[in-house]
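_Backbone structure tokens_
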Amino acid sequence: MVLIATAVFTSVKTNASNVPQKGDEVSKALSQAPALPSVVKDISLRVAEVYKATNPQIVKAKSTQAEVTNQPMYIINLTGEFQKENLTATNLSFSVLADGKKVWALRAFDNNNKDIWQEAEIDLTTDASGTNLTSATGDVVDTAAITVKSVTQVPESKNKSATSLESTDTSNKVLKEGLYQDGIIALLNPYIQKALDNYYDQYLTTSPSYSFDLIEILDITRPEGYHTFPITIRFQVQPYVGPHDIIGIDQITMKFGPDEGDVKVEKFEHIKSYYNDLPPNLKSIIKKSH
């Protein structure tokens, strides 16, 4: 458990400047990641088109660096209805370089976080039906489904075998690190959920939920030094009600020791409130405004 926690901290620590916001009518997360390059937004829509997505929305964009090359990249989470042959998923996550030249570690899953399919990397030159999405010059064809005009086709690598190997290694690392983080979150889920319930009970008549793609580990520390307890973990979570209507951003700090049940919520910090912006059909669950 200790070694796993250390690995997750290395890969998921983020800047406070990337705290999500809300309010973009086209996509919830475009305002959650104000520094998100337009090319990454465009590529995200193209990825959605590959899977014939219905009403795709970016709900999360996390800035980080590629393991091997240290190139700036993003981990993107989309919601919508994505299709691959006879399979359908409601959520899609993937990694993309900040320049939009590579997309990999794709994971499609349902609202219960059950995997539907995974792909190591995809080709964005065609959609799911095999239709070519680029012109002879490499510019993206202007279609009703894809409103992207500035992205050019990525040239082939001179060393295909090396590129393929690096892509596979990076994809495996991203998936493995995500599994480590999800494992820690799953173990601490009862305490995370209770902390959310205790806070939002004063404002809402219903208990909020959260999913793996709406929570992240900000940092993990050992106050007493190497190979000692307690261990402190700080999470950032975006709880939601209804069909993934996000109601806020919260940071939860937990400290745990070696014994069963030795877990304590040390701090609950409410960062932002969104529940006043709930749709009309959910307004009735609001007890009072923050």
